Known about the structure:
Structural class: mainly alpha
Distance between the termini: 64 Å
Shape: elongated
Radius of gyration: 33 Å
Amino acid sequence: xxxxxxxxxxxxYILLYVSVVVIMILFFVATTxxxxxxxxxxxxxxxxxxxxxxxxxxxxxxGVHTNTSRVKLLDKSY
Length: 78
């Protein structure tokens, strides 16, 4: 096996490395030039809500499970 430093093949390795770096730089420049940043509308939520609509729902039969399958579910989820 020949040493690449002695036979001049190191130039090919350096050219390969430089070409990869140049391609990465070109892709970075292309994405920054053609990427249009849109103005994002800020959402404002009403924090003074006096009534929660889903709070009035009452779960009927909370403790009774009528499951006929072989799999038993836990009564309390963790």
